[in-house]
Write a structure and sequence with these properties.
single chain, 261 residues, mainly alpha, two-stranded antiparallel sheet, 5% strand
Length: 261
C-alpha cells in the first residue's frame, strides 16, 4: 500500500511537471519582475497559452479526472518531457519528497507522537485505520520542520553551490505539494455527491503554503517567492479555465473514488 501511494503521488507530480514545461510563455524574458504589474502580466500570458493549446487542456483534464474518479493514474500515459525538463521537474519532486519526509519526521522530533497522544480510529475510504490525534498547531510546526529540511538539502546541493541561480528551483517542492493538494481540495467540491468524511486533521493547504513560503521568503528573498508564485499562477489558471469541463466530468461520475471520502 505504501509503495502504491508513493507511485501515484510521484507519477502525478511528474505529470504536472510536464504540464508546467508545456506552458511555454514566449514573452517571459521581457517581464519586468521589479515592477508592480508582473503578476498580472504573467497571468495574462499563461491564460493566453492555455486557451490556444488544446493538448495542455486535455492533459490537465486527463490527469485530474483519472486521479479523482478512479483513484489511480495507472491508465494515464507516461509524461513526455526532454531530459533537461525532466531534471528540473525532478528537482521539484525531490524537494517535495524532502518536505513531506521532514514534516513527518518533525512530528517525531517535536514530540507530537508521544505516549500521551493516543491513536484514534477512523475510516479512510473503506479501510479502518488508526491515526494520532494532532492539533493544527502541531501540523504547522511540522511544516516548519519540513521546510528546514528542504532548506538544508537545497543549500548543500552541489548543483546549487555551483550555480546559485538554481536554488529557488530547489526550494519550490513545498509549493508544488501544497498547490497540488489545494487543487485536489477544490476539485473534490465539484462532485455533486461528494461528502467529506475524513477528520479535519490538517489546516487548509493555502494556509500552510503561505506560512512555509513566508519562511522561505524571509530566508532566501524575493527570487524564491517569485518562483513559487509562478507555480501558483499556472495551476490557478489551468483550474479556472477548465473548471466547467471538470464539473461536467465529475457530474457524470457522481462521486469521487473511495480514497477521497
Amino acid at each position: 500500500m505504501q509503495f502504491k501511494l508513493r507511485h501515484q503521488e510521484t507519477k502525478g507530480l511528474n505529470c504536472y511537471g510536464e504540464i508546467f514545461w508545456n506552458v511555454d510563455v514566449d514573452d517571459f524574458e521581457n517581464i519586468d519582475f521589479n515592477g508592480s504589474t508582473w503578476i498580472d502580466e504573467f497571468r495574462g500570458m499563461v491564460s493566453k497559452v492555455i486557451s490556444k493549446n488544446g493538448s495542455i487542456q486535455k492533459r490537465f483534464i486527463e490527469i485530474l479526472t483519472e486521479y479523482l474518479i478512479n483513484g489511480s493514474l495507472d491508465s494515464v500515459s507516461p509524461h513526455r518531457v526532454s531530459m533537461e525538463q525532466r531534471l528540473s521537474s525532478g528537482d521539484w519532486l525531490l524537494s517535495a519528497e524532502f518536505f513531506i519526509l521532514g514534516h513527518e519526521y518533525g512530528h517525531l522530533i517535536l514530540g507530537h507522537l508521544s505516549d500521551e497522544a493516543a491513536p484514534v480510529r477512523c475510516a479512510v475510504g473503506n479501510m479502518q485505520v488508526e491515526i494520532f490525534s494532532k492539533s493544527h498547531s502541531d501540523e504547522l510546526w511540522a511544516d516548519m520542520f519540513g521546510a528546514a529540511i528542504v532548506i538544508k538539502w537545497s543549500i548543500n546541493d552541489k548543483s546549487a553551490q555551483d550555480h546559485p541561480s538554481l536554488l529557488p528551483n530547489l526550494l519550490c517542492g513545498p509549493t508544488l505539494f501544497f498547490e497540488c493538494s489545494n487543487l485536489i481540495e477544490r476539485s473534490l467540491q465539484l462532485f455533486p455527491k461528494y461528502i467529506k468524511k475524513r477528520e479535519n486533521t490538517h489546516p487548509e493547504s493555502s494556509v500552510r503554503n503561505k506560512r512555509v513560503n513566508d519562511l522561505l521568503f524571509n530566508l532566501i528573498g524575493d527570487t524564491q517567492h517569485r518562483q513559487a508564485t509562478l507555480i501558483k499562477i499556472i495551476l490557478h489558471e489551468l483550474y479556472s479555465s477548465m473548471q466547467s469541463d471538470l464539473r461536467k466530468a465529475f457530474s457524470s461520475a457522481g462521486r469521487p473514488a473511495f480514497i477521497w471520502s
